[in-house]
Design a protein that fits this description.
59 residues, mainly alpha, 2 helices, 86% helix, 0% strand, elongated
Length: 59
């Protein structure tokens, strides 16, 4: 159960890191909308991780 939660959370964090580097390379640089998008990915990661762990725990 914990293993799949860690895998899901790690995938979300990797996605956040990739998104940060892509945003940093843009011509405008890192803008507030990029920060908002990355924080949205963070909260989605938390929600999906909780969903995965909860579903595994229920079965």
């Amino acid at each position: 159960m914990i293993k799949w939660g860690i895998i899901t959370f790690s995938a979300g964090i990797v996605l956040m890191i990739i998104e940060y580097f892509v945003a940093k390379r843009k011509k405008e640089g890192f803008v507030p909308s990029d920060r908002q998008r990355i924080m949205g990915i963070f909260w989605l990661t938390i929600f999906i991780t909780a969903l995965v762990v909860g579903l595994i725990w229920m079965t």
